[in-house]
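Researcher: Quick one. two chains, 431 residues in total.
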Amino acid sequence: MPSEYVHPEVLVSAEWVLEHLKDPSVRIVESDEDVLLYDMAHIAGAVKIDWQGDLQDQLVRDYIDAAKFSDLCARAGIAPDTTVVFYGDKSNWWACYAFWTFKLFGHADCRILNGGRKYWEDHKFPMTTEKPSYPRANYAVKSSDEASIRAFRDDVMTHVKARKPLIDVRSSKEFTGEKLHMEDYPQEGALRGGHIPGAKSVPWSRAAADDGTFKSADALKAIYEAEIGLKPSDDVIAYCRIGERSSHTWFVLTYLLGYANVRNYDGSWTEWGNLVRAPIEKGA
Amino acid sequence: MPAALDAIARELADADRQERIEMLIDFAKNLPPLPDRLVPLKDATHRVEECQSPVYLFVEVDGGKVDLHADAPIEAPTVRGFVSLLVEGLAGATVEEVLAVPNDLIDRLGLPEILGMLRVNGLNGVLRRVKAHTARAAAAGAEAARP
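Model:
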């Protein structure tokens, strides 16, 4: 019998979204790599939250603070008990990043539209250019999940010394050090190539099917457990270049496979590859 | 800057954030299709490596004038809009005018404000390539014209 996702409730189908377009307890959020896509057309009622413009602090390399996050949610009509459904381009890679950031601030009910923007468009579900506006909600960040889902470089150093599992989700050429950045992507500034010692390479996109949905639980277990040797009880850190691709893997391990201790290292290679005396391994 | 590009730059600079987004989307929608003769030439030598999406540039120089053609998918409206802006802004420009386009054009267009710094790297790659291909095409033309 095929196994199920451990937390299937965090994934919603396009049909589910269609039925909840007017549900006031649900807010749809689009988060994309290409920032113009939302303005070209989006799911009716969806708001745009941009990882760069909205979620990152514009001065310090960090996320916005709790006050700014509360204001962002309030303006989007998101209350602490709102079900927030994220979707976006590139197999939901940026949607997962926004999801992870919402979890940093302890937002309770976050979900992903399985298949993202591509699935929605390919199946000709309705889209609009009309921008919604919602009455301002009351939002105050109460708790933070930061310690349990975010790793900083000192945590990673400790992790390396303890020989605990690290997953490098970049492309194989970035992992070996042959390339400093993803193939066909701009170089985002690392002085050294390679990977964090002991890390195993599992490019993030291996978890996504061709239609943008997530692979089945069995297919995911075949990759992360049979092939790489992870166990649900492991303490895992995932990283990439700036922490976006690894949020996709963080989502897969945490919710679809039910791992309780997975952290995303958002400093990722653009920090590690520039860090003086940080240990690096090259090659496959 | 060529007059057409200068006019676009002024219009963008005067626009607010939302107007800039809409202008870029309009450019993306209005990119002229590649001439049939160039379609089979969409290969690695014409691809912009800096861009995540398949973006192709074709620069031809004829009688000192630059003829620019480009192709990019509509699913990547940002880069498609930018190449379309260059195709329109550089129409009929001379080699010298193209080479003199300021390297900080993207800043002058106010695009980092709507796109964020990480997204403009690919666009800078497009501009660098247009200038480099123009210089190369002009040099090849000069070589061929030598008696």
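Chain A touches chain B at residues 33-37, 39-40, 50, 52-53, 89, 182, 184-188, 242 (CB under 8 Å).
Researcher: Thanks, that's what I needed.
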